[in-house]
Amino acid sequence: MSIIAINSVEEFNTQVLGCEGLAIVDFSAEWCTPCTVMRPEVEKVAENLAGKVTFFSLDAENKDLREVLLTQEIEGIPSLVFYKGGKQLDRLAGYKKADVLEKLIREVIK
């Protein structure tokens, strides 16, 4: 699977913040229509960029992950947040098509 689900604060801290390369977290929720429409777009980009970027998903409705939402200042979903070496590089909010999303990610990879 090209997108890794984050299910605890500890997983976020070790897998996302501990990722040496570029990590992108998709903050979303099942009830969010833009999130469910965007999910296949994110999956497509994750497949295209496999080996260059590690993709994660985080359910914004999971109460066990509320601390992550607060510390990362997630104010709306869908949000894609880019991390490298434990530091936040950039973020995208709202629906994006796969080609637009991939182009923006490739600019960050440069």
From TrEMBL:
Q: Where in the cell is it found?
A: Cytoplasm
All copies of the Thioredoxin domain together span 1-110
Q: Which UniProt keywords apply?
A: Cytoplasm, Disulfide bond
What PROSITE patterns is this protein classified in? THIOREDOXIN_1, THIOREDOXIN_2
Entry similarity comment: Belongs to the thioredoxin family. Plant H-type subfamily.
Q: What protein am I looking at?
A: Thioredoxin
Q: Organism source for this protein?
A: Veillonella absiana
